[in-house]
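Worked problem 6 (solution included).
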Amino acid sequence: AERLAEWLANQEVPAAMIIGMLNNKDASHFVQKLKNQVDITYAIEIPEEKGCYTAADLQTIISQQGITAHMAPSLQEALQELAKHPAKTVLICGSLYLAGWVLAHEN
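Solution. The predicted structure is:
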């Protein structure tokens, strides 16, 4: 998370985050490292993964860090919602399981 925060600090457009995370990880600590670099977040559940936070749980954790947090039922819907906002760097993060799913299923 610290490296992501450093990278985001050097971007020229605001950042948005789509996050899904396994429930054995410290989501609060992860989000805290990014809170000064992200202005909007969509929490999702990791597709096909039973051991993840629910989107509602992640939304609560993110909101507690002072970041505007929403839930989305899928990655696609989170991306559609973010497309309605001004141009942003979109960070999809939180789990290698989520990254692997994205790489396997998205074009």
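Discussion: The mean pLDDT is 91.
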